[in-house]
Amino acid sequence: MILALLLACQGEPGPSAGPTTAPVAEAAVFAMDAPAPAKHALLVVIDTLRADLAAEAATPNLDALDAAGASVPRAWSAGTWTVPSVVSIFTGMSVRQHGYDERTGQLGRYPLLPEVPMLAQELEARGFACEGFFANPYLSEELGFDRGFQSWRRSVDKVMPDQLAQSVNESWGDGQRHFAYIHLIGPHSPVRPGPEARARHDLEDHWFEDRKDLNIGRVKRNDPPGAADVYTRAYKAVVEDTDARLGQLVEALGPHRKDTVILVTSDHGELLGEHDIAGHGYWVWEPLTHVPLVVDHPGVPGPEESLPATLGIASVPALLFHALGLEGSWSTAADAALPLASQREGKLALSPDGHTKGVWHTSQLEVFDLRNDPGETRPLASDQGLVEARARWEASIPEGTLGAASGELDPATRAELEALGYTEQAPPPAGP
Ligand SMILES: [Zn+2]
């Protein structure tokens, strides 16, 4: 069996209103010889997981999926906070397309998710039973994240493997096809690694005595001095704990493991002091935009499975549709061969090739060559064609708009979001 993701140019740019329309300028074409589509799908999104620190941490379960399957070396988040990025994962659209580019830190009313086809709805229409477990309170039914899911349950990381195992044991043998969405929150502030991971990373227990003790606010305030170093070690420790959860989730599939495509990615990363910033507000720097993306389709041995070197997380529905052998909405991925684009409240990062990166934090463009300057500290003298690339990209992707803010988060959800630090977002400073 050979599974290949072939990228092909298809002539002049054309308009594209969403996943159900014709592909735009450069479209990805999935081709499969002797197809062996997976029966079921498990999509795991690990909140706030930046690619470089995930690579530094010990993640044997993610590595095993990568070894058996394939990964995208330069996968990019669509946005840099949870809601817009997960909307991209669920719709196959960039933030520009779906239009959910709202500010965090305003814990009152939010717009409902755009009225466009969502992954679970499209799978449901093809006979799948869809269920989701999420640990980030933002993914609430109030905003519409439950669309297409028969069951959409708030949970916590450590319980989700048992919940998934129970569901698999009870219903996955019923002859239906199944899709499970799991949203883990481990690496999100406040970080609380377990005792063994703390010991591995030389973390003293006093950091974790209060639930909010080691939060990203300490890195922002450098309180106490050196907090960024402690936090970074604790972050890696939590990533390792979260990887153990991933291993348990894979195990929970039991005998269905061999029929299930597993995709693991993240909604965005985290700044841990780079550019003198901590957290994931307002910016589109590399620690926020570069995330892991691993696909293991068990019918396809690793070396024969190929993925592009660069891909946005809005390609997730296309990757899953392809692995499941489905036609329709995302069987060609309009997003796949487009430039990497990550957007945040008017700010934009764009990279046509995965290493030349344009950053517009204001109307002014800075261009970095990530091969020589991974820290994005030495802007190049010329624009490297990025101004034109942005104009081309914007011309090829219509801008989506949302209705008025009408999704009311309930008081308990708001309190939980405050505990996660969403009200600590400082307003963006003026200037570049
Ligand atoms: Zn998030």
Unreliable runs, pLDDT <50, ≥5 residues?
A: 1-35, 424-432
The CATH architecture term is 3-Layer(aba) Sandwich
| CATH topology assignment | Alkaline Phosphatase, subunit A
CATH superfamily: Alkaline Phosphatase, subunit A
Strand content: 15-25%
Alpha carbon gap, first and last residue: 50 Å
Main sheet, how many strands, which sense, barrel? 7 strands, mixed
Oligomer: single chain
Based on CA atoms alone, the radius of gyration comes out at 20 Å
Task: Count the E strands.
Answer: 21
Tell me the number of helical segments per DSSP (H or I, 4 or more residues long): 13
**Tally of individual domains:** 1
What ligands does this structure carry?
zinc ion
Rough shape? Answer: globular
Mean pLDDT: 85
Major sheet strand order: 4-14-10-3-9-7-8
Give the helix proportion (percent range): 25-40%
Keywords:
single chain; 432 residues; alpha/beta; Alkaline Phosphatase, subunit A; seven-stranded mixed sheet; 21 strands; disordered C terminus
Characterization of the model:
The protein is an alpha/beta fold. The chain has one domain (40-424): Alkaline Phosphatase, subunit A, CATH 3.40.720. 27% of the residues lie in helices and 22% in strands. The chain has 13 helices and 21 strands. The strands form 6 sheets. A 7-stranded mixed beta sheet has the order 4-14-10-3-9-7-8, with helices on both faces. Strands 17-18-19-20 form a 4-stranded antiparallel beta sheet, covered by helices on one side. Helix 6 (160-171) packs parallel to helix 9. The longest helix has 26 residues, at 227-252. The N and C termini lie far apart (50 Å). Mean pLDDT is 85; it is low at 1-35 and 424-432. Zinc ion binds next to loops.
